[in-house]
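Late entry, evening session. Most of the bench is empty. Finally got around to the prediction I had been postponing all week. Sequence below, unchanged from the version circulated by S.P.
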Amino acid sequence: MNFDVKYKEKDIAEGIVTSIKKYGVFLSFEGGYAGLLHISEISTNFVNNIENYFHLGDRVNVYIKSVDLETKFLKVSIKLLPSDQNPYKEILPSKKITSYLKDIDFSKLEKTLPRMINEELEKEKKDEFKS
């Protein structure tokens, strides 16, 4: 086990973006630590394209959710940062998308969605028994 404890839960640390994926960004930290900022941890609002917010080499302040001392891997979040340190707290859909969504009648989907989900689950059960 590595006893060089550089980071702990609830710390705020600066990482450098080393890789960008559709599901999140990988960051490197001092002391040989690495971390994943999952797309769901950027904002409480919907983030459509992570590449609109991060670029390779960006320096990013993050809140440390957990630390694996053996692998030096951090699970991190931006949405858990104090409000004054969170540059992404106000990510909102564009006005064009918002106004478009207001014009859609979702009531039919709301009524049929539970049935559709049950049908899919039944199909999966049948497929499992066939395998």
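Two things to note before I forget:
The first strand starts at residue 12 and ends at 21.
The chain has a mean pLDDT of 81.
Will write this up properly tomorrow.
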